Structures are given as C-alpha cells and as structure tokens.
Amino acid sequence: MRTFKLIALSAVSATILFGCGASGDIISTPVENIDNSPLKVSELTEAEAHNWGHLDLVKDTIPGMSVDKAYAELIKKKKGKKVIVAVIDSGIDIDHEDLSANIWTNSDEIPNNGKDDDGNGYIDDIHGWNFLGKGYDEQLEYVRILAKGDTTDPDYKRAEETYQKEYPKYQERKTQYDQIYQRIKRADEILADHLGKKDYTKDDVNAIKTEDQDLNQAKQIAQYMYSNNLESLNAALKEIEKDLEGINERLNYHLNKDFKGRVNGDNANDMSTKYYGDANVKPIKKSESHGTHVAGIIAAVRNNGKGANGVANNVEIMSVRVVPNGDEYDKDVALGIRYAVDNGAQVINGSFGKSFSPHSDWVREAIAYASEKDVVFVHAAGNDSNNVDIEPNFPDDNIDGKEISETYIRVGALSPNYGSNLVAGFSNYGKQNVDVFAPGASIYSTFPENDYKSIGGTSMAAPAVAGVAALIRSYYPNLSAAQVKQIIMDSGLAIKRKVIVGGDAQDVRPFADLSKSGKMVNAYNALIMAAKMSK
C-alpha cells in the first residue's frame, strides 16, 4: 500500500477542542572523518530542499548520495547504455513534461490495434501494463481476510486484533477533524462578518479589540493558525479537508469490510489466470500520484530547466500499475514482477508493502525469478517505525531466515538532518532485513499534470537506490545484478553515530545497527567501485 501522510494537527486539535486560550580508498572522505562531519545548522535553501538527496555530505553537510558529484567528476560526458527500470506502483503520468522523454516504449507492439503483436499475452502494452483495470480504491489486506470470515485462517486472529485497534482510531480521528473543521469555519465566518470582507489579513485580525466572547475566540483561533505558518483560516480549512479526505478513504474503503473493490474481472486467489487488466498505465485521477513521484526520483530528465532531476540518465521507465488506493494484491505484484522481467527490465522498483500477505509465496517466487534472470529488485522498507526483523513486512526475500534472492535490496529512509535525526522517524529498520538507507524524507519530484511536490517515505528512498542501480548498469553493463547489489551495499558511507530510531527521542542506537550494511547509499563511491570491479 502506498503510504498516505495525514497532517496530524495534533497541537491544533488540543487547542481548539480543549479550550482556546567499504574500503577507505573509495570513500569520498576518509571513513574515519565521516562522523566528524559538521552539522548543518542553517535551514535548507529552496534549491537545497529540492535536491538534497543528490548532495554530498562532505561538501554540503547534507546526507545525500553524492549524485551531483558523481556526474561532475565521474560520468561527465561518458556515454552509457540505456537501462529499462520498471516502476511497479500506481499509475504513472507518462505524458509529464519531465518524464515523457524517458518512458519505455515496447517497439514490438503496434499501438492501439487491439492485437498482441509481440505474443507476450498482453494486448497493446505499449508503455507497460495495468493489472488493476479500471479499479483503484481497495481494502487493506487484513480487512479482506476478515471479510472472508474464515476463522481457521492463520492470519485471522492477528487481522482481527489489528482491525479492532485501527478502526476505532480512525473513527475518533474523523470526529476530531470534523469538529476542528467546523470550529475553524465558524471562526472564519465571524471574522469575515465583523471585518466586512472575506479576504481579511493577519493585521486586520490583530487589530481587533473586543469584549465579545465569540469574536475574541475567533481571533485567538486565527492567531493560533498564523503562529503555525498557515496564512489564513481558509488555508487551514484546505489542509483539514485534505486530511479528512484521507480519513474518509480509510473508513469508506480501506477499513470497510463490505467494500468490493476489485473490478478487473479477475480472481485474486487463482494464479492460473494471468492475462487481465488493460494497457492504460496512467493515473485515473490526479490524486493517484505515487507512481509518478517515484518515477521522477529515478528518471526525471536531468538539467532541462524543469522541476526535478532524476538520479539516473540513460533510463527508460516501464510502468506496471498494480498498487491501488489500499493494499495491493499478491497476485498482481507477482505477475507485475514477472511482466517486468520478461519484457526487459534490468532494475525493478517496488515502493509498496503491507503487514499481511496471504500469497507471499507467489511474490517470493517472482522475486527469485527476477534474481535468476539477473534483475535488481529494490523494495521500500515501510513506514511504520518498526523493526522488520520482528514485525512482518511484505514482500520480503526470505523463508525461515534464508534469502531466496541475491538481487533484492530493501531500503530505509534518511532525513536531510545529519546527526541524531539522520534516520527518518517513520522509517522501518532491521539489522537482518533492511540492507541500506537512502534519502527519503521531503523528496521533491514529479506529480501528475506537470506538477511537482515534496513528500516523504521509504517509497522515496527505494527509487533513489533504484536510480543508483540503473547508473551502475548503464555505465558498467558487464556487471551482474548480484554484483550491483553488493556494490551498493559495500560502497556506502558507514556512519558510527548514534541516531534516534522510530522518531522516539528515548530510543537512541548506533546507525550501524539499523541495517545489514550499516551504510548510507553513495552514488559516487558506487561508481568508483563498479569501475574497479568491471575491469
């Protein structure tokens, strides 16, 4: 499931509801000096904020992947080989101004003739395939388990416990946000009526002197919003409306046992049927933005004077639409991986995940298939602040602790704050089951309809690493997928600092204990190591 970030407004709630009053010679700086790098104390500039994941820890005191340094010093004018990167995700805006030039086209298929020209089983799959058909809204996996009503299912009890915890939480949250919305709306009406205009300013509000209790309370609400960097009560209402949209989707679709979401005509529990869906890989609405954002992190056209720069040049993005607004189906994921492999992808990005997976064996078999076919599979670690060595997160690449793939990379997320807050508070971690960390908080990238926004998640960290994998495969095509994974893990920066884990200031651990490599991915170092290994 793609992660929806609700703006908590917890402080606002309290105020309004409860009263207003690797080897040393390839490291970009000597490894022993990494932990002595200065902390950046100033706020990031807009340019830095939009590009921080590409910056260099030593030069910029920002824990990026040294991508810009790699282009300036290593890639320069070298010609690389085109690499197909499959983005298994929600729909991708393949017509976006910063992506359209880097979209994969199936040259063996004749567009829109209603025939399977290349014989791969998928009709008119020009830019990829859409396993969701016309569907988008879905339940969470544990809700689907409960809806089946099979109490003998080994996951049923855990699913029920999760539901009993989550459903009341979102009901309460909806009640709170509805109350907040109505109070702010009423305050806006009172102020507009008193001031005789709807577009009143902060100065107008501050100048109000009154003994009227309702007007005074409205003034306090407005001043509180101003103090939280909201320019107006109307802006606050729009923020809450976005939050309510997410809460309502959670209650109406994700947590609704009676909701029937799968509309592609396929049985998700029958692997004998493989050819369903359609060739429309685009989002069905603008809010279906996750896949477009992920694709831009990998492949937004570099230095074209438009919104964002992707990590990799020489890439073609293959769109495989399997991730709905809710939890993805294991069958769609497994077939999506196989589709990508069979149609030439050399790198696959999977920025999705869930805690229940009834057919996890199908997905593991597909991951093993990708490994056998020399394809790198990069997967987001998840955004639950959990240790995935203990808490389940799917898909994974191990059975009883034994890995079934040499090319699967699981990625945790970094923030731009070098120091104790280096690890993003939402990021999952795990000494055994997370391989590396990469930039994932507040990442600026493409959004549908030629838009750009900053959002965060391990969903953003994974494509950063997929981009590095694509760079290696482009400039050193003789290296195997397993070698690419090893380079990414071995060439990162090994940080010895202690960091806050899971956003809990009381939980401080060595960064090295949070992943198998104990390192931050570094594109500059990876390319140097790749050059040495390819000789």
UniProtKB/TrEMBL annotation:
Domain of life (superkingdom): Bacteria
PROSITE patterns, sorted: PROKAR_LIPOPROTEIN (PS51257), SUBTILASE (PS51892), SUBTILASE_ASP (PS00136), SUBTILASE_HIS (PS00137), SUBTILASE_SER (PS00138)
UniProtKB keywords: Coiled coil, Hydrolase, Protease, Serine protease, Signal
Species in which this protein is naturally found: Allotamlana fucoidanivorans
GO terms classed as biological process: proteolysis
Gene Ontology molecular function: serine-type endopeptidase activity
Location of the active site: 89, 290, 459
Protein known as: Peptidase S8
Family, as annotated: Belongs to the peptidase S8 family.
Signal peptide: 1-24
Coiled coil: 230-257
Domain Peptidase S8/S53 positions: 80-491
InterPro entries, A to Z: Pept_S8_subtilisin_bacteroid, Peptidase_S8/S53_dom, Peptidase_S8/S53_dom_sf, Peptidase_S8_Asp-AS, Peptidase_S8_His-AS, Peptidase_S8_Ser-AS, Peptidase_S8_subtilisin-like, Peptidase_S8_subtilisin-rel
